[in-house]
Amino acid sequence: GIYTSTYGSIPLPEQAQTIYDFLFESSPQQQVVDPRGRTWLLDAHSNRSYTFEQARERADDIARALHEKRDLREGDSLVIFAPNDLDYGPALWGAFRQGAVVSCANPAYNADEFAHQLRTVHSHHPIKAILVHPDAAVATVQACEKSGISSSSVILLKKADSSSKNVEGLAEGLVTLDELVATSRSANMPAKCKVKQGEKKTKLALLSFSSGTTGLPKAVCIPHWAVICNVLQAVNFEHRTLPLEAYDAREKKGDVVIGCLPFYHIYGLVVVLHSSVYQSTPVVVLPRFEPRAFLQTVQDHRISALFLVPPQVVLMVKQDFVKEYDLSCVRYVMAGAAPLTEEVVKAFKQRFPKAKVGQGYGMTESSTIISMHDGSDDFPGSSAGKLIPNIEAKIVSPEGKALPPGEVGELWSRGPSNALGYLGNEKATRETFDEEGFLHTGDEGHITNECLFIVDRLKELIKANGFQVAPAELEGFLLSHPDVQDVCVIGIPDEKRGEAPKAFVVVSPSAASRFKSGGRQAEAKLDSELKKYVTDNKIRYKALAEIEFIDAIPKTPSGKLLRKDLRAMHAKK
Ligand code: AYL
Fold first, then answer.
1. Which of 60, 135, 303, 558 has most Cβ atoms within 10 angstroms of its Cβ?
2. CA-to-CA dists, residue 72 to 100, 192, 193, 228, angstroms
3. Among candidates 388, 88, 387, which has minimal Cα distance to 235?
4. Shortest-distance atom of ligand 1 to CA 441
């Protein structure tokens, strides 16, 4: 009952190493091309760039500065709270060089959302440095206060200027990364972390957040090994199907990748950033996705490979203004993190006949990719592709039986890129990662003719713009509103975000009596008040698309919310 990859297994590295060693020092035969002198990272707006050598130098400078000025040691942590930036990669690699753990956060988080992450990370890996964009400095200082972390660990990624948001004089007192690097130049270079052979597969690199099957966001423990393997697996798959070509700056030949998906999310981090630079395919770094700026960058830098989330692909096929740009350079579009429908694939092919559009499926818990669709006509458009090399899978019935091809069940996946578990949460770890090494994905699907089809989600997770929204988080938050007595949040289809949260709300007695006297008007008032309550306090993509007031939330005798019933109720409407 185990499905193996059509592509078999590729050899994985023998040596125990950090991601830093893998990128900068792995043996030449392992590298796809000789990376020396090649451009790795380029800033879309300033045109500043780093070659392989400069990226390494910068990573070394940052490693020395963090060691010297913030006492960052093996097992300590660095938190990055910033949009994509030229120094994002080097900061990660500098910390990895020292054996420190990195946790990346969404820079648009408010202080409460960020404090949850800081607390979780700090409880196991002392936070010695928080690298912050000036726009997020105020939220950072507040989050530090809330989580009991010294704000002296805060380092500005760059100098605050007059355009920096909400700085109120605060960011001016904070040291910048450049200052820290400059004042530690004379210090000795600290010894590089050497991963012991016994820790080859377990040496921790990243703490990425995911809510898993249920509950609040948890820190997923991702070892260096998992990231290295997923990069090698993805690159190998691409080389059999649609290889990215290393860029030759003199000849102006080869592929260029757009780095607009956030590097704090595992997709941006592993697939966009690491898989690209490993192949010496330069990444043009954009701080965020703004449709026109994005299209202009693709045109100006002749970008050939776009890594996107499905709502961005939808925008490219639906919006008229897209036609104002010369996008003939694009030959490869890869969507991931949420389903890409067959209709969108068809519409894309009509508008961009020369480009291929594929998709990847995977999870934070698998350090990204489990299966990939290369955009060729060999795979059905509705499929999430084939298992990439070294991945094994099972489709499992609710009774735990492995199912044959074509039958629908939960997807379990096993491979070298599976994470180690959830930090400090053994129960959730045991529920998701079993003793045989299978990751229980919480996704429902089938494997037919070696192609994986994801048909539904068994876990409660909602995917808005490809980002995770944990219903439990919104439910806990909505319960803090005095008019809410009980609540259940589900995901519903949404034209812009792909999926969006909907709340079923049971109102408090006082609100109920207002409804009685005020009727529809009173309901509409609370509807907009609750929506505003969420948008005022949570990041934008978590906004409620809809609220429905009901008399009682359906529950099991043990009190578990019956989300399925509510989903059915919504579908019937
Ligand atoms: P997380 N089709 C359907 N659902 C998907 C897909 C897809 N192609 N990809 C991800 N999901 C859902 O940790 C699914 O429910 O993703 C899965 O369990 O934020 C959940 O999203 C995981 O959410 C790539 C590029 C994978 C990106 C990704 C997503 C990685 C992190 C492969 O090539």
1. 303
2. 7, 12, 12, 23
3. 388
4. 18
Distance of CA 421 to the CA centre of its chain: 17
For residue 357, give the H/E element and its range. Answer: strand 356-363
pLDDT per residue as tens digits for the range 425-447: 999 999 999 999 999 999 999 99
What is the complex's ipTM, to 2 decimals? 0.99
Using an 8 Å Cβ cutoff, are 211 and 470 in contact?
Answer: yes
Six-digit token string for 25: 């020092």
Q: How far is CA 175 from CA 1, 162, 567, in A?
A: 57, 17, 50
Is 166 a residue whose pLDDT tops 90? no
Using alpha carbons only, give the angle 430, 432, 433 rounded to the nearest 5 degrees: 70
Helix (H, G, I), strand (E, B) or coil at 463: strand
Distance between CA atoms of 210 and 441, rounded to whole angstroms? 12
Q: Please give the average per-residue pLDDT across 314-318, as a whole number.
A: 94
Ligand 1 centroid vs 570 CA: distance in angstroms? 24
**Minimum CA distance residue for ligand 1 atom 20:** 363
Quote the CA–CA distance of 172 and 329 in Å, as a whole number.
42
